[in-house]
Structure formats: structure tokens, C-alpha cells
Design brief:
There is one protein chain. The protein has 884 residues and is mostly beta strands. The protein has a domain of 206 residues: Immunoglobulin-like, CATH 2.60.40.1190. 4% of the residues lie in helices and 51% in strands. It has four helices and 48 strands. The longest helix is centred in the N-terminal third of the chain and has 10 residues. The protein is globular, with a radius of gyration of 30 Å.
Length: 884
């Protein structure tokens, strides 16, 4: 049968769809004129009867944006804006002919529940960045920093502002006070700011805008209307200090004889966070001895690969404004693992110490769980000339482990004193139509001990990026280029050359050699993209390429899994953004990737097609299919020769119910398999959320996964002058679920619970060694050990291998079977007792267990998990906000 190519299939599918109705709309650019409030500003109580409001006209005539762009909204909305020397004041009138249907769900901050109104303020007037303030009818506050013309919405930005709402027979009203100190703007006599007012009508899931915007237009901030009339406001000399105190008690299992594990530990500490307005454009954030005790634990996993897992940042200091010091080396709409590569990965700062001391008989050790951050400074902002600035400076402490043996104590350094620097500049031209930027990073470590010389003494990287829009921002071209250099002792550079990111030691690597005398390594990387993201018609696409040379290394303060790669990618999208038939929206996307190494070997060819749709009843669904042809891996043998692997296929689907309901349920499934029967995986997941009362939201998200792989890496063993690359067949079963509960007593008083049990069991069998890693036939690439060649010693827990069956053991491998069980939970009571000032009461519990068993039994594994003695942390944290 003739092969149907993915691209041809995609075009055939597109031809069966109706064309989107209408052409790109052009709306009149709107202007709202404000005035000074006078001596008596409005009282923030939700009552719009204050006389000062009579000085300005209502802004009205909102236009529907979702679902039916250009139609009149179901319910009209109006607003007014005033200002004085200290704040901006906004009044909203959200009319509703059925006020009893207004949805006023209580929720924690930034959850955006029910009906709400929102103002976005582009006070830089750069067409790229904005400050968003959302007022829910229930009183729940939402705020986000918007960047990249609406591509990034940072909900971790938490300004200090206030609003109140009222319900009446005409609908509901709101009044908001936004201190000018929470905005950023240039120092000049008269201001023009970009603004957008948006309303959500929850029961219809309808959005209406004051400044109409076509769905065919690219961007968000660049399409704002204008706020005029602000004159003579004095530059804000901002200084906000947030000192805090933390009392913490740990309870854990006592270890007899271990002086460091007596079952309890307590600590009292304090620190300081602060914001200082260096100018009206630039803000200096600082933290001294930060505490992140209220932050959730990372999700559990069993990582059987050679590569590090990327975990998202959760610490507030590093999250807020993170977009400003972001430098993606090879971003792409098409996705791919290389798109996570970045010159800055904040999780490097404060990481767990990497050195583990060797212990003698009867010796015990206390090793810090993380590296203390002595202090950090972050200067961010944007000048009136359009220059964005981001500078981060952080110092981490030298950490030592304490060892004790028979009453004698010694210390050993496990992490050196380190300094991290990140600097980012980006210049806008023509209100963001063209952007040119650069970034530099530097890490310097004080390596006073020989056993720490596996660390780089210094690491530097730098890059430049360029982006240009044309044709009314519907097309763009973008490029990046970066370079790196790491320096250190020979031990550190040998580890860098032989790490999983590059594996210079591969015996068939004929373009890079391991140099054991090397004390420095440099490399380069970059990308180029061309894209059509909006405009007339339904077609969008992006195509481009990226590379990372073998010597490129940024993992001291950045993130990168693989160097030595060249990637080509294309994304194609067809979108129906206006309602038709039973659909509210439909998207069809296709992707294509090809990877090479720097020796010219084609590593991989992959294809993908996916379909997603939102229906008029607010349900949504999607499906995806993927194929990777037979591929070459430079990493599967963990430093051994490159190897040939069968192709892969996979498909998945998902269905989401209407999220407006009190009970919502989503589910999906995945199935993947390899050619030659090389592997098989399936997974199913469910997400159930329900709101038993207006103030409580509970969600449960279970999943189950089964997988079988013919060839799972087990180890490398020497035999004579050669290496044996050993694999086994792995049957793995994994399950877990996440439970979350939010109880919002008031918008400023919440209780949050997070719990996540996780169970995974892996059983190995049919052990093999690689014989010809790139043989044409799959079965010729390995040899499976017979019963005469391999024997299991249950007493020692090892497999003894006798390749020539002469009765002598050639080498052995430890039994790799596993049962891993993990549970993390947080219960957080949060009370914002004054604007910006918060009390946290936190209980965290962790349980973790491991058995070399390999047999999966949900009931037994769960019982075993909760038989593990828990580690409990009880924490009280209070911070007080001062504005000076």
C-alpha cells in the first residue's frame, strides 16, 4: 500500500474544513481622557456616588471578542478613570439584566474566578509590556505583569493595590485604587499610556473589550487604546521593605546512634525582601537570607535517562520579572526538548550541595539539603528610550557537612562559596516592531579544597538576539547567537567532556576527542526563525533551525540537555477562530523535525499532527499522532558508540468538560509503541474538580502508566580491553494522583492543601549486551544472555555473567529492580492581614521509600508508603510590608 505522508494527510484534512467567515477587521483606535480627582479622591467602597466621579465621562461601547468577535456584548459595561499625585482610580459599572446570575466564586489570589473586570495599563507606552489588575465580583484579586506583547502573563507579580465591589439591581460595580508606586513610567510632564479594559461574563464565557481587537491581529499590548490627560504627577520615590521572621520545627525518624538524627530540629531565622525605585523606570529588588518554606515540593518522578529533569521555578524572588532575564537559545512554536535550553535557569542558585563526603565505619554526617542564598539583587525596568534592563546578582554560601565518629567531630566543605551574575539588555525600536538585545552570565566559585575541583572555577556565557515584525506584526524574523566558556581544573573539564551533554569519549566520535589536560572549554549556539503568526487567512507557520556546538556549556547557571546538535523544525497551523457549526474554535497543527550531530550524522526525523476544538457548549477535545523514523542515538550507550534504534509511533486524546460547572471532569489517554516490538507504553489520566460550596474548590488528578522496553540501560562493565554495554527488558508500572483543596474564607484568608502520593515499580529481565550497535537488523544489534550465561545470586542481590560459560564470572550487575514510593504534601494557611503583609502557617510532610522488589501492587505499595516514618515540618512565617 502506498505510504500516506503526514504533510499530505494534513493538507487533505484542511481541505475538508470550511473557510473562516469574514476578513481581518480594523477597529477605530480609542482614547479615554482623564482628569485629576481634586482634593478629595473617591472612597474605595464600590459605591460610585463620590462627587469626584462626575468630572469624567463614562468609557463604554464595549465590543465582544469571545466567542463572536465584533458582536455587541450580552451585557454592557462602562468605566471611569481618575488620578491624583499618588494613585490611579478606576470605577466600573458592569450592567447585568439578570443580577441573580452573577457568579461570585471565592478563590485565592490570581485564580480569576467567576465574573470579573480588568484593566491593563501600558504605562511604559512601549506596546510590549503592561500591568494587569483584575477585580472579581467576589472580591478576589488578580494581577499579572504582561510582556512580549501579551505572549507572557506573569501571575507571580503581586503589587499592593485595593478594590471593593457591590451588587445592585443593575448588575455590579467596583472601585479600584492602584498606587502609582506599583506602576513604572517615565518622568515627564504629560503622559500617554496604553490601556485596555476587559470584562468576563462567566455564565456565557464571554469576553468583551473596550478597545476592540481582531483575532486576526497579532499582539495584545500593541493594540491597546490610549489614556490621556495625566499631567504633573511627581516621580515616585519608591521604597518597599518586607522583613520577615520564620520559626520552624522539623520532626523525623530517629536513628539510634546518629547524633544528627535525634528526631527533631528547630530553627528561628529572619530576613528581608525589598523593592527600591532607583528611578521611575528602574526597580531594585533585593533579598537577604530568603526563606521559601511555603513553596510546594517538586513532583515525584523516576528518571531512568541520562539527562536532568527540568523543574519549574517556584520561589517568589526568582519568579517575579523572570521574563526580563530570559534568553531562550532556540525557542520555537514547534516545540522540542531543545526549546527549553536557556542561558539562565534560576534553579541553579541555591541548589543542593553536589559533594558527598566519604564516611568511615561508625561515622555519621549532617549534610545541608540546599545551599544558602546569602543575598540577591535584581535590577529591572525599562527606560523611556525603550531600553529594557535586567541585572541579577546573587551570592551563595560555602556549605559544610559535619561528621562525627566516637565523639570526634570534623567538617568538610560540600559546596563552595559562589557568585552568580546575569545581565540582560534589550532595545525596542518603533514601539517594539524591532528588538535587539544581549545577555551575559558569569559564575565564579571559590574552590579552596581539592575535593571540590570537579566544579568549574568559572563559567561565562553571552548571547545576542534579534526580532523584527512586518506587515502589521503578522510576520516576524528572529535570530539568536550565543557563546560559552568554562574554566577549571583538569578534573572538572574531563567531567564536562564526558558528561551526557556531549560524550566526547564515544569510540566512533571522529570529530571531537577527550583531552584530559584541558582546563577550558568553549562553544557556540544559536537559532534562526521565520514565522507568520497572524493576518488574513487561517494559515500560520514557523520554520527555522538551531544549533549547539559540541563545546557549548551553560549548565552552571543555565539549562541545556544536549550539545552537539543541529535542529531543523517547521510548525504549520490552521485555525478557525470564529464560531461555526457546533464549534466555537478549531485548530489543526502539524510539526516536522530533523536533527543532526556536528559530524554530519542524521540523528532523527519526526512528524506530528494534532487537532483541538472548543465546542459551543464549552467542552473541548483534542487528539495527536506522532511518528519518529528509525533513528541514531549518540547517548543511549552512555558514552559508548552511537546506536541505531527502531522507529516510534504514538497517539493520544483528551476531553475537557465545561469548566464553568460546579463539577468538571477531564480525561485522556496515550498509547505509544516501537517498530520491531521494541517497546510499548500506555497511560490514562483523569482530572476531577468540584466546588461543594462557593468558597471551596477540590481537585483530584489520578494517572496510571504501564510500559515495556526491550532495551533499558543497566550499566557498563569492562571485559579485557573492551566495554560491555548492558541492557535489560523493563516492565514498569507507575501510578499517582494529586489532590488540591482551596478553602477561601475571605479573599485575604485562605487555606490550601496539596498532596501527591506516587508509586512506581520496575522489574528487569532478559538481560542483553550490545554487539553491533548500528547493525541493519534490529536483532543483530544485541545478544540476549542464556540461562547458562547469567545467574542470579539472591543472597548478594547480583546477576553474575559468564559470557563463555567456562564457569568463571566475567562481571556482575546489581539487581536493578525497584519499588519507589514517594509522598509530598503541604497545608498552608495564608492571611494577608494588611495590604502586602502576610502570615503563613505551614505543615509539610514527606515520605519516601525504596525496595529492590520490582513487583507492583497498588494496595501493598500504598500501605508500604504510609508505613514509612514521615518527615514533618511545621513553620510559622510572618512578613510586614512597609512603604517608605
Amino acid at each position: 500500500m502506498r505510504e500516506i505522508r503526514p504533510a499530505a494527510f494534513l493538507l487533505l484534512l484542511l481541505g475538508c474544513l470550511p473557510a473562516a467567515a469574514g476578513q481581518e477587521s480594523v477597529y477605530e483606535h480609542r482614547v479615554y481622557n482623564t482628569v485629576h480627582s481634586g482634593k478629595t479622591p473617591p472612597r474605595i467602597d464600590g459605591d460610585l456616588s463620590d462627587p469626584c466621579w462626575e468630572q469624567v465621562e463614562w468609557g463604554a461601547d464595549f465590543i465582544q471578542w469571545e466567542p463572536s468577535e465584533g458582536d455587541p456584548p450580552s451585557q454592557p459595561t462602562a468605566f471611569k478613570i481618575l488620578y491624583d499625585d499618588h494613585a490611579l482610580y478606576v470605577a466600573y459599572r458592569a450592567y447585568d439584566s439578570e443580577p441573580e446570575l452573577i457568579v461570585r466564586h471565592l478563590a485565592r489570589r490570581d485564580y480569576f474566578p467567576g465574573d470579573w473586570v480588568e484593566i491593563n495599563i501600558d504605562s511604559y507606552f512601549d506596546g510590549r509590556t503592561a500591568f494587569s489588575f483584575t477585580a472579581s465580583a467576589s472580591g478576589t484579586r488578580g494581577d499579572e505583569f504582561v510582556s512580549n506583547d501579551g505572549d507572557v502573563w506573569d501571575g507571580n507579580w503581586d503589587p499592593v493595590w485595593e478594590f471593593e465591589t457591590k451588587l445592585d439591581k443593575e448588575g455590579w460595580t467596583a472601585e479600584a485604587k492602584i498606587p502609582l508606586s506599583q506602576l513604572r513610567f517615565a518622568d515627564k510632564e504629560e503622559h500617554v499610556w496604553g490601556i485596555q479594559i476587559q470584562r468576563r461574563l462567566f455564565r456565557k464565557e464571554e469576553r468583551s473589550l473596550w478597545q476592540p481587537k481582531s483575532k486576526d491581529e497579532a499582539g495584545w499590548v500593541s493594540r491597546f487604546g490610549e489614556l490621556r490627560g495625566i499631567r504633573g504627577i511627581p516621580p515616585a520615590h519608591r521604597m518597599e521593605l518586607l522583613p520577615y521572621t520564620v520559626a520552624k520545627v522539623d520532626r523525623f525518624k530517629k536513628t539510634p546512634g546518629d547524633p544528627f538524627n535525634d528526631g527533631s530540629r528547630s530553627d528561628l531565622s529572619s530576613g528581608l525582601d525589598g523593592k527600591i525605585g532607583v528611578t521611575t523606570d528602574l526597580t531594585l529588588d533585593l533579598t537577604v537570607n530568603p526563606d521559601f518554606g511555603q513553596v510546594e515540593a517538586d513532583p515525584s518522578e523516576v528518571n531512568l535517562t541520562a539527562f536532568e529533569t527540568f523543574f519549574s521555578e517556584k520561589r517568589p524572588f526568582f519568579i517575579e520579572g523572570s521574563n526580563i532575564i530570559d534568553f531562550g537559545i532556540s525557542p520555537s512554536i514547534a516545540g522540542g526538548s531543545h526549546t527549553q535550553d536557556n542561558l539562565f535557569y534560576s534553579r541553579r542558585i541555591g541548589r543542593p550541595p553536589r559533594h558527598r563526603p566519604d564516611l568511615g565505619d561508625g561515622e555519621y554526617a549532617e549534610v545541608p539539603d540546599e545551599t544558602s542564598i546569602l543575598g540577591a539583587l535584581k535590577l529591572t525596568g525599562k527606560t523611556r528610550q525603550g531600553l529594557s534592563v535586567g541585572i541579577l546578582e546573587s551570592m551563595t554560601a560555602e556549605e559544610s557537612a559535619t561528621m562525627e565518629r566516637f565523639g570526634s567531630e570534623r567538617k568538610e566543605t560540600v559546596e563552595p562559596f559562589s557568585n552568580f551574575f546575569v545581565g540582560r539588555l534589550q532595545k525596542d525600536f518603533e514601539r517594539g516592531r524591532t528588538r535587539i538585545g544581549g545577555m551575559v552570565t558569569a559564575v565564579n566559585r571559590r574552590l579552596d579544597a581539592e575535593h571540590l575541583e570537579f566544579n568549574h572555577a568559572s563559567a561565562y556565557s553571552g548571547g545576542v538576539d534579534f526580532l523584527h515584525y512586518w506587515s502589521d506584526r503578522s510576520w516576524y524574523v528572529a535570530a539568536t547567537a550565543a557563546a560559552s566558556r568554562v574554566e577549571g581544573e583538569e578534573t572538572a573539564l574531563l567531567e564536562t567532556q564526558t558528561s551526557s551533554a556531549r560524550y566526547y569519549q564515544r569510540p566512533d566520535n571522529d570529530y571531537e576527542d577527550v583531552d584530559s589536560t584541558r582546563t577550558a572549554l568553549g562553544g557556540h549556539a544559536g537559532s534562526f526563525r521565520v514565522s507568520k503568526i497572524s493576518g488574513r487567512g487561517n494559515v500560520r507557520f514557523e520554520t527555522g533551525a538551531a544549533w549547539r556546538s559540541p563545546g557549548f556549556e551553560v549548565n552552571d547557571v543555565g539549562f541545556m540537555r544536549r550539545a552537539d546538535q543541529i535542529n531543523q523544525f517547521t510548525w504549520f497551523g490552521y485555525s478557525l477562530r470564529r464560531p461555526f457549526s457546533i464549534f466555537r474554535r478549531m485548530d489543526i497543527n502539524g510539526n516536522q523535525w530533523v536533527d543532526w550531530d556536528f559530524g554530519g550524522t542524521t540523528l532523527s526525523k519526526r512528524f506530528n499532527v494534532n487537532l483541538s476544538a472548543t465546542f459551543k457548549n464549552q467542552w473541548s477535545a483534542g487528539a495527536e499522532a506522532n511518528h519518529e523514523t528509525e533513528f541514531i542515538s549518540n547517548t543511549a550507550l552512555r558514552g559508548g558508540p552511537s546506536s541505531r534504534w527502531p522507529g516510534n509511533w504514538s497517539a493520544n486524546f483528551w476531553v475537557d468538560s465545561d469548566r464553568r460547572r460546579f463539577i468538571t471532569h477531564d480525561f485522556g489517554a496515550y498509547y505509544g509503541w516501537g517498530d520491531e516490538g521494541s517497546h510499548e507504553t500506555w497511560e490514562a489520566w483523569v482530572s476531577l474538580s468540584f466546588r461543594p460550596t462557593n468558597a471551596v474548590l477540590v481537585s483530584v488528578n489520578p494517572f496510571y502508566n504501564e510500559s515495556r522496553a526491550d532495551l533499558q540501560f543497566v550499566g557498563i562493565r569492562p571485559l579485557g580491553d573492551s566495554e560491555r554495554y548492558l541492557f535489560g527488558e523493563l516492565d514498569q508500572k507507575t501510578t499517582g494522583f494529586t489532590v488540591r483543596m482551596d478553602y477561601t474564607i475571605t479573599p485575604n484568608l485562605t487555606v490550601q492543601y496539596y498532596g501527591a502520593p506516587f508509586l512506581s515499580a520496575g522489574s528487569y529481565g532478559r538481560f542483553k549486551r550490545i554487539t553491533d550497535a548500528r547493525a541493519d537488523e534490529y536483532l543483530d544489534r544485541f545478544h540476549a544472555f542464556s540461562n547458562e550465561e547469567i545467574a542470579y545470586d539472591s543472597g548478594e542481590g547480583v546477576y553474575a555473567i559468564d559470557e563463555d560459560s567456562n564457569g568463571e564470572v566475567d562481571y556482575s550487575i546489581s539487581d536493578p529492580d525497584f519499588n519507589f514510593r514517594d509522598f509530598n504534601s503541604n497545608l498552608v494557611f495564608r492571611w494577608e492581614f494588611r495590604p502586602g503583609s502576610t502570615l503563613f502557617l505551614v505543615w509539610s510532610q514527606a515520605r519516601s521509600g525504596f525496595d529492590p522488589d520490582g513487583r507492583f501492587s497498588y494496595g501493598d505499595d500504598l500501605d508500604s508508603l504510609f508505613d514509612v516514618y514521615p518527615s514533618n515540618t511545621f513553620l510559622v512565617k510572618v512578613n510586614k510590608w512597609f512603604s517608605l
